[in-house]
Specification:
Length: about 575
Amino acid sequence: MGQVMRDRVHEVALPDARPPIKAMHGANIPLRGLYEISEILTAPTRLQITLGNVVNILSSFVQMRHGEMVIKDAAGELEIAATAGNKHAPQSDWRRFTPQAVVDRICATGRPLVIHDVSKSELFQADLQMASGGATMPVTFIGVPIEAEDEILGTLSIDRIRDGAASVHCDEDVSLLTMVANLVGRTIRLHRILSTDRQRLFEEDGRAEKSRDEKEARPARRSPVKIDGIIGESPALKQVLETAAVVARTNSTVLLRGESGTGKEFFAQAIHKLSPRSKKAFVKLNCAALPESVLESELFGHEKGAFTGAVAQRAGRFELANGGTLLLDEIGEISPAFQAKLLRVLQEGELERVGGTRTLTVDVRLICATNKDLETAVVNGEFRADLYYRINVVPIILPPLRERPGDIPRLAKAFLDRFNSENHRELAFAPSALDLISQCYFPGNVRELENCVRRTATLARSSTIATSDFACQNSQCLSSLLWKGADRANDGNASDEFGRNRMPVESPLGARRTGASEGAAVPVNARGPSHPASGATGMRVTDGDRLIDAMQKAGWVQAKAGRILGLTPRQVGYALRRHGIEVKKF
């Protein structure tokens, strides 16, 4: 037992009265006593009460004045003391019947102890001296050890007034008390085993509950989110997918930001599918594809006769998306006048159709998408700050393809499988072809990669696409020439947009994502065959010796060296600074 209990049971009422010893037949007394004691030991009560009942019932079968049972714990300290026949003694005076020296003697020897006259025993002298003076009657003491599995657990003892008849039955009483002590020992051992098991179960339950609490307290590990149509295993993409899965469970407005071709519409559909609104409509509208007058009618709807050609009432996109999700793509392209109209719908959830007076209430989860730098637009007065704060509740920045190069082979294979299915062909990439395409810069991101795969697959001469099948290996990559020309036309100017109209040297969002300064150039060694810093043949300027050789041939004139390498003077200057090459002046 973990804690020492000093319980003492003096008088415990028994369920029925026992006849006196003299009224019972002598041969039946031990058997009846063992039977009654067995019933008490198997009763579902506390151990202290059980032992107290055993001591009290002994007087029905053994001639005794006092009875006592002392149980020790594993450390030898008193655990339980049960006495009988002491109606007037104080609670703390239990040791007056059995001195500690007697208990220690029985426990040490493990044998019964019979003292016919305690007044003549040295073991009782200390207690007799403390007792009140006067004549005392001779008292006989009988004590037996309580043991189980060769372990001494305590003592069971009685005393009685000595007379000639009682002394004859000492041997019989010792035998009976020994049998009772054995039964008690087994019962105590069973209780201790059950108590230990119960304590162990409590501890295990406590540890399990603590583990559950700790598990609930720390972020749960979720399995990777898989969404149809979105392919990739890069950390940047996984982070966006996890964020989208968390955001989807709420109704908060989401602003998808990223360069053109990063799949903003796919992510908007994914958020809708993962949301509680997935069974409702998903409605999308490209704000840049319509003039302002038509855009208002498309979003809010119109009444019959509201304008020329309005021959019937028409519900707008907000009404069609009621209860579902509405995607407003290219939100950064709407005019300031229309921004004010849109702001009212987002704030109040109410609108009127064009030409109507009835106010309609809509419940729409709004997702906006843009590749424009809205912060710069707000500073320049091109975009309302209040609308910016309204739609920029949960911004999700989609990574460009150059930040997830490991996904390029997976995407290329997926696009090729789609091409094969549509055209009933069985093309496959050679390993070298996948290595080549993985090095490309792809300013147009996933959209440009898909176009590259389709173009190459369409013109492939055999069932295996090799490196020679790519346009960049044959000086026919028009995309590369386009970005190269745009870069030359904008030489010396930092791009403030994601690159919808020209090649993004480094977009503002990319700078904020990676911590780079705004307008910082992309390292040459991160560019592939389609980057303007690379020639039309896919050559990249990564060899300082080759750069020095070109500069020497050109007389250290950067413009001439650029013509030799197929680069602009600005790109040559960047490559010189990157390699730490000092320009010689003549």
